[in-house]
Amino acid sequence: MYMQSQPSRIDVWMMFDRIAPRYDLLNRILSLGLDDGWRRKVAEYLPQQKKLNVLDLATGTGDLLLALFSNENKISSAVGLDMSAEMLAIAQKKIFKRNLRDSISFVRADAAQIPFPESSFDAVTIAFGIRNVPDIDITLRQMYRVLKPSGRVVILEFSLPENIVMKTLFLLYLRIFVPAVGAVISGDYKAYRYLNKTVETFLGREELCQAMRNAGFINVNVVPMTFGVACIYYGDKLA
Questions:
Q1: Which of 180, 230, 209, 236 is nearest to 41 (CA)?
Q2: What is the value of pTM for the model shown?
Q3: Which one of 68, 132, 223, 230 has the lowest number of neighbouring Cβ atoms within 10 Å?
């Protein structure tokens, strides 16, 4: 079982509450504007049928859901789940602005204790959040539980490049640039130092794929993007 050692659940929620006002701006800056394209790419790995009902875990300010809804009306309804009230408040404003309040709803809840019955969703997604949950195995099993048969989980997460040169450059970027810029813009050096540490210490690609298989998923695959600094992982529930 893979468990994050620190910080505790409540510490993580409080951290995201603190940085919520500048979170989207920093995402654009620190990803060099690539994060929106990565989120849009997730839509390509959703199940092929139309009128999907999607659950987005660690939804934050709702950017992944907005990206998914821009993909040819593939989704009919969605729920965004997060423990940070401040992040959800921002997400709600975005949904109202895009006139999606009849299609998207939000719930403040723990990804390790998803408050929905078995077989409720066609797809479960999570972007840049799986590395922040205290117990990845429990969270993956919860994802599997709430998926309908033949449903799919799609995970977008940072990754360390396999190329040694790119890996070295990325680590320097994470350790120096990310905390410094995060501190200047958000006023919270500790938060962005934590975020970069979670990228460095998170499961490797095959380790996460194996954790997904252990949770019951089949047809598990990983798709590296942008020299491997981010990856899309996906797997299916048995029919």
A1: 230
A2: 0.92
A3: 223
